[in-house]
Amino acid sequence: MADSPLSRAIRWSALKRWDSAVGATLIVVLLLSFTTVDGFGNALNLSFLIGNTLPIALVALPMTLLVVSGEIDLSVASTAGLSGAVMGALWNQGLTIEAIIPICLLLGVVCGLINGLLVTRLGLSSLAVTIGTLAAYRGIAQIVLGSDAVTDFPTQYLDFAAGRIGDSFVPQAFIPFLVLLVIAVIALHATPFGRSLFAIGASEEAARFTGIRVKRQKLILFTVTGLMASLTGIFWALHYASARYDNATGLELSVIAAVLLGGIDFDGGKGTLGGAIAGVFLLGTLQNVMSLQDVSAQSQIVVTGVLLVLSVLGPRVAKQIALARAGRPSGPDPVAKTG
């Protein structure tokens, strides 16, 4: 049942307030971390924070667009791991990095295309499909590379993936990310393509009636998501100087938690990339602070899981409050008269 215009307006208003709250929370957490956490503010640690957050941020760009359209891809971490495994295997076979990178990116396109075709052509649930390909792609990665770890990549690539710009805290890889961010923001918020994604997420049937090619748009999104996941796998292997089949394990949880924390509506049709990126760096900052405080990796996973729950619950609670203030019941909207 479609939302009424009033309900959609209230929902959007609540999400915008949530976006602002996440941005404000990020600023507060950064200020508190600078003043209370030993070592947080030095250039090396800030570089680590940004560099370790970049894999989440890279995948969050297409994931935001995908969730806005009402879909999801849980296979992104496995696609990244498969890309890294193929990269390591091809390097062991004597191929150059310049030849390997396009092959790995093409592999990501294929992985995303498979997901997209299963969802758009067979009408399967993206959640179910990508849970399956999550396991399949990770299994293929293990077959390709086994338990080997490839570490002897060219120094210039390792330096780019892990190095800083001069003596600053800004990683060299952050600049290309900013370019991709600008492209994604323009695509989502300033083009007919982006507007079509919001329309699809709000009501796929209504979008189809207005002439939007829903299946094509979703296929493009899944393909781009696979491409970006593969790029992330390449960056991961170079940033951490290790290509293994289990690279990026669990990355999908962090990406989805960050995107939803940033105010992207899990039901689709609402959200901003600015909010999503604020969620990404809020999560990255919290993880960095926990590492500085010697919080165990297991406990950090628990915190990420709690944030994932809160990121789904928070905007919904905000909507309920907004509905209550508007003097309306919070249940389903009555069926609007048509015709």
From TrEMBL:
* Organism whose genome encodes this protein: Streptomyces scabiei
Q: Which gene encodes it?
A: lsrD_1
Q: What topology does it adopt in the membrane?
A: Multi-pass membrane protein
Which cellular compartments is it found in? Cell membrane
Which UniProt key words apply to this protein? Cell inner membrane, Cell membrane, Membrane, Transmembrane, Transmembrane helix, Transport
Task: List the GO terms this entry assigns under cellular component, sorted alphabetically.
Answer: plasma membrane
Tell me the protein's name: Autoinducer 2 import system permease protein LsrD
InterPro entries membership: ABC_transp_permease (IPR001851)
The keyword Nucleus appears for this protein: no
Record keyword tRNA processing present: no
